[in-house]
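4.2 Preliminary Data

To establish feasibility before requesting continued support, the project team ran the inverse folding procedure on a target of 268 residues. The structure was first converted into the token representation described in Section 3, and no sequence information of any kind was made available to the design step. The complete token record follows.
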């Protein structure tokens, strides 16, 4: 049953709604007048804060652009000193982290794996949220792998996967884990890591490569055959010796004596 409409004549009902609205508006105006200074101060403070945020964003953008330009210049030079300058002049920036990664690549190319390892460890220690952190982990894992430190390599390959579960380095790190297992003689673990590339990264660019690895794994290592011993060197054949002595050259015959002239007869 619907409620009966309220009788305006009942006690407690407003007698004049317009008068009530005017009264409330007057109260609001009075409150504004009473707190005018506070309101103005608040508005001014908000404006200052907004300006500060805009200015800070602009300064930060300028710093980012300057750091990026410095890194591009260092990359063009390709020198250790140039990369170090970026880290000194723009510490903590994304460009400084990129400079450390490029410096490590250059040190590897120069045949200095220990220096490269120190550079990568510095990168990982100083840039915990760098967008290329997974790349630093993978590069360090490769250095450990090449140096024969299998446990450290395995640990950093796994960290690479954790840092970039869906990137291109994750399937490659799983392949490297399979290689480590295969080097240790654990073909089952190697096969598991290789198969994970298919199941977890079906669109990976390494599918053809991993198919080849799995095929070789199923075939197994071919039996080793000893190389034949080298044949002895044949001595140079000597010239055949003739049993009969070679015929001597004919000696020239002595010339016949000249005839004597006839002697004259007596008395002539």
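Position-by-position output of the design step:
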């Amino acid at each position: 049953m619907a409620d009966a409409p309220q009788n305006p004549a009942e006690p407690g009902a407003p007698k004049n709604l317009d008068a009530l609205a005017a009264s409330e508006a007057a109260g609001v105006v009075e409150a504004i007048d009473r707190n005018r200074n506070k309101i103005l101060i608040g508005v001014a403070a908000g404006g200052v804060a907004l300006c500060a945020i805009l200015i800070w964003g602009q300064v930060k953008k300028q710093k980012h652009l300057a750091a990026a330009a410095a890194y591009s210049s260092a990359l063009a030079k390709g020198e250790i000193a140039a990369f170090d300058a970026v880290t000194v002049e723009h510490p903590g920036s994304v460009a400084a982290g990129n400079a450390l990664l490029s410096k490590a690549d250059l040190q590897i190319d120069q045949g200095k794996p220990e220096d490269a390892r120190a550079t990568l460890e510095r990168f990982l220690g100083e840039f915990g949220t760098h967008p290329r952190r997974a790349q630093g982990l993978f590069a360090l894992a490769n250095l450990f792998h090449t140096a024969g430190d299998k446990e450290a390599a395995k640990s950093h390959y796994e960290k690479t996967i954790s840092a970039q579960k869906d990137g291109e380095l994750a399937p490659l790190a799983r392949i490297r884990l399979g290689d480590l297992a295969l080097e240790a003689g654990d073909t089952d673990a190697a096969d598991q890591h290789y198969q994970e590339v298919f199941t977890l990264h079906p669109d990976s660019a390494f599918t053809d490569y991993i198919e080849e690895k799995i095929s070789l794994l199923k075939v197994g290592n071919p039996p080793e055959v000893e190389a034949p011993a080298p044949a002895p060197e044949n001595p140079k054949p000597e010239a055949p010796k003739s049993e009969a002595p070679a015929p001597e050259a004919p000696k020239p015959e002595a010339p016949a004596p000249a005839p004597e002239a006839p002697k004259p007869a007596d008395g002539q």
